[in-house]
């Protein structure tokens, strides 16, 4: 079912999470349209962050400002954690977790895997998430307990895939030392799986797990805003989302796959120490 504006039916209508999701979708659409309209053929790097290749453009900042302004208009008093603007405390139980462009390097180079990612927490738990993969025209949504959706279709992750047939997405950090270790881990993983994919967007990778476009995803060093929305979308599509050594998702490591493959991948990764530089 598709609603009046062609927004995907996310199944959460009438619930608190569904209402937050509806607002998140509206805001992610508006930010996406702004980015698409204003993206120059070759965006300029405004500044670098953790390393010379960890870049921010003027449009990362403009998109986050737009998102923050819309949240403040609709729900003054909500807290916001955004990659570019940091943590703004609020007065209630709701906090918005925003990555205005996940996949900025793709945005810079004109590659299609970049997205506006917005997760919404109530009392510290993500209950709604939207990942708007603008260049591909694909908007992924989930509300807690209401499934994950794309274009009016409910998403289900791939199940029953053994590790040696698994297509596995991963990503690499911006620091040279971390990348060296990540490459060493990958050298051990590659002979044990079908193949690797590196999209350049953690949020898109998690949506790809949800949509069955890859079988699994793991990455060291992501931030909460990278995986807040995509993690809910993957979980609502039936995937496990967690860390290593029994921990929940953590910057040290994010993993996602259907139960069964998740455990196989975890057993492969754990002795390789992929959560240490
Ligand atoms: C990055 C992307 C990338 C991942 C990095 C993230 P950014 O986010 O999600 O896929 O490998 O760890 O930092 O910098 O494009 O917002
Ligand atoms: Ca990001
Ligand atoms: Ca970003």
Superfamily (CATH H level) name of the largest domain: Fructose-1,6-Bisphosphatase, subunit A, domain 1
Secondary structure tally: strands: 15
Helix percentage range = 25-40%
Strand order in space, largest sheet? 4-3-5-6-7-8-9-10
Description:
By secondary structure, the chain is of the alpha+beta class. The chain folds into 2 domains: about 10-155, 2-Layer Sandwich (Fructose-1,6-Bisphosphatase, Chain A, domain 1), CATH 3.30.540; about 165-270, D-Maltodextrin-Binding Protein, domain 2 (3-Layer(aba) Sandwich), CATH 3.40.190. About 35% of the residues lie in helices and about 25% in strands. The strands form 3 sheets. The chain has an 8-stranded mixed β-sheet with strand order 4-3-5-6-7-8-9-10, sandwiched between helices. It has a 5-stranded mixed β-sheet with strand order 12-11-13-15-14, with helices on both faces. Strands 1-2 form a two-stranded antiparallel sheet. Helix 1 (about 15-40) runs antiparallel to helix 2 (about 60-75) and helix 5 (about 200-210) packs parallel to helix 6. The longest helix is centred in the first third of the chain and has 23 residues, at about 15-40. It starts with 15 loop residues before the first helix and ends in an 8-residue tail after the last helix. Mean pLDDT is about 90; it is low at about 1-10.
Question: How are the SSEs placed, and which strands pair?
Answer:
Blueprint: H1 16-38, E1 45-48, E2 55-57, H2 58-74, E3 79-82, E4 86-88, E5 94-102, H3 104-109, E6 115-122, E7 125-133, E8 138-143, E9 148-150, E10 153-154, E11 167-170, H4 176-189, E12 195-197, H5 202-210, E13 216-219, H6 224-236, E14 240-242, E15 254-257, H7 261-269
Parallel strand pairs: 3-5, 11-12, 11-13
Antiparallel strand pairs: 1-2, 3-4, 5-6, 6-7, 7-8, 8-9, 9-10, 13-15, 14-15
Helix pairs in contact: 1-2, 5-6
Bound molecules: D-MYO-inositol-1-phosphate and calcium ion (2 copies).
């Amino acid at each position: 079912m598709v609603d009046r504006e062609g927004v995907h039916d996310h199944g959460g209508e009438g619930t608190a999470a569904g209402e937050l999701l509806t607002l998140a979708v509206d805001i992610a659409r508006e930010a996406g349209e702004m980015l698409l309209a204003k993206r120059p053929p070759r965006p300029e790097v405004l500044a670098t962050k953790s390393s010379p290749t960890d870049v921010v453009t003027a449009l990362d900042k403009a998109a986050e400002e737009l998102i923050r302004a819309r949240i403040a208009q609709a729900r003054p008093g909500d807290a916001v954690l955004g990659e570019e603007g940091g943590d703004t405390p609020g007065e209630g139980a709701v906090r918005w977790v925003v990555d205005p462009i996940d996949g900025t390097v793709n945005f810079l180079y004109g590659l299609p895997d970049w997205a506006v990612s917005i997760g919404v927490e109530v009392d510290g738990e993500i209950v709604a998430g939207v990942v708007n993969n603008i260049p591909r025209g694909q908007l992924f949504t989930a509300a807690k307990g209401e499934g994950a959706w794309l274009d009016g279709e409910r998403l289900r992750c791939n199940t029953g895939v053994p590790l040696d047939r698994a297509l596995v997405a991963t990503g690499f950090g911006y620091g040279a030392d971390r990348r060296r270790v990540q490459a060493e881990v990958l050298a051990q993983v590659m002979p044990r799986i079908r193949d690797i994919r590196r999209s350049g967007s953690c949020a898109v990778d998690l949506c790809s797990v949800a949509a069955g476009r890859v079988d699994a995803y793991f990455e060291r060093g992501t931030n909460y805003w990278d995986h807040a929305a995509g993690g809910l979308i993957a979980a609502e599509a039936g995937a496990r989302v967690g860390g290593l050594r029994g921990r929940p998702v953590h910057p040290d490591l994010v993993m996602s796959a259907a139960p069964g493959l998740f455990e196989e991948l975890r057993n492969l990764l754990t002795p390789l120490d992929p959560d240490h530089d």
